[in-house]
Automatic annotation (TrEMBL):
This is Uncharacterized protein. It comes from Humibacillus xanthopallidus. The keyword Methyltransferase does not apply. The lineage of its organism: Bacteria, Bacillati, Actinomycetota, Actinomycetes, Micrococcales. The chain crosses the membrane at residues 12-34, 46-67, 74-98, 110-130, 151-170, 182-205, 212-231, 243-263. Keywords: Membrane, Transmembrane, Transmembrane helix.
């Protein structure tokens, strides 16, 4: 029988989201609240302190994403982030295998980590495939972002993906250039976080604001926490490296752009249906 394309979020997807939220929140509390205690509290010892706070920022952004998945009615409002999450989880699963000896195998957090990143890619991809079968086509009255905003977001998503893949594939190349100290494992972890930005590439084929709104909210949460983390651990930063300043300018610009886009799209419904260069 043909699937009814009613754009609903399937019950199994909501269950997956509900299961993931407390795990992500707990990881955020540990890594952002106690970044100096990862040896005692986490799956492996992470240093310097900025790295666990960056990872924690991604976790709280993910928690907000899955809270919305659990509550949202329309798949169009949440579907754009699933493939990026799947890529993130897959890369962390690969990093776990590549650096197996770096983990504290006797800690319960390690087995939760390993289970999560070996199982989550399959479950998240399965949820995306199942929900895509009931996704409804765009409606003509749905608000869309303009061509300038669309180009900026697509470019940013592409650059984030490229940066993330280089960090993951070539740690020896990136470690001497990076704004703070990394190991091969943490370099790959940071690379996986950057790959989350690939979600922005959705605007290439679908510029609806409905598709992008949650991604903007998640990016705002993550970037804000990362910048606050950088201030907290500013002693970890190498001020003499050009990439330190380029990354800071890029993060601040991306945060301001996300806030402006969200604000501009809050116009009354009688306003024009596009923004960002129309």
């Amino acid at each position: 029988m043909a699937q009814v394309r009613d754009d609903r979020v399937l019950p199994a997807t909501r269950v997956l989201a509900v299961v993931l939220v407390p795990i992500l929140v707990a990881a955020f509390v540990i890594l952002y609240g106690f970044p100096a205690d990862t040896r005692r509290l986490f799956a492996w010892t992470i240093s310097p302190q900025l790295t666990p706070m960056v990872l924690a920022s991604a976790y709280l952004g993910g928690a907000w994403f899955f809270v919305r998945v659990a509550r949202e009615r329309r798949w169009a409002a949440v579907g754009a982030g699933f493939l990026a999450v799947c890529l993130f989880a897959t890369l962390l699963g690969i990093a776990t295998v590549l650096h197996w000896d770096r983990f504290n195998h006797g800690h319960p957090a390690f087995w939760l980590w390993a289970t999560l990143y070996f199982v989550a890619p399959v479950l998240v991809l399965g949820a995306w495939l199942a929900n895509s079968r009931v996704a409804a086509p765009p409606r003509p009255d749905e608000r869309r972002i303009g061509p300038v905003a669309r180009a900026v977001i697509a470019t940013g998503g592409g650059l984030a993906l490229l940066q993330g893949l280089v960090l993951f594939a070539a740690p020896s190349l990136m470690i001497p250039l990076w704004p703070w100290q990394l190991t091969p494992l943490t370099c790959r972890v940071v690379g996986a976080i950057f790959c989350l930005g690939s979600a922005g590439l959705v605007v290439i084929g679908d510029p609806r604001w409905e598709r992008l709104r949650l991604l903007v909210e998640v990016a705002t949460v993550m970037l804000t926490l990362m910048l606050v983390g950088a201030l907290r651990a500013r002693g970890d930063l190498h001020g003499d490296r050009m990439l330190t300043w380029l990354l800071a300018v890029g993060f601040i610009g991306a945060l301001l752009g996300a806030v402006y886009l969200w604000w501009s799209m809050r116009r009354p419904s009688g306003a024009p249906l596009t923004t960002g260069g129309d």
